[in-house]
Amino acid sequence: DAVYVVEITTLDSRGMLLKDTTIVLERDGENIEKKCDEEGVTVFSIPAGVYTLTVYHDNEIIGKRKINIISDRSYEIVTNKEPIFPQIIITITIAFSVIAALLFIRKKDHVSLLKICSIGLALLSIVLPWWMLTSSSSSSTVETIQNMYLIPGNLIKFTTTPSVIVGEVASASLPELFSDIIMLFSVIIFIGCLLVMIHLIVEKTYKRISSGALYGGTVLISATVLLFYIVFNELTKVGIGSFIGSGDIGINIPGESSDIIASLR
Question: Are residues 143 and 252 in the same domain?
Answer without folding.
Answer: yes
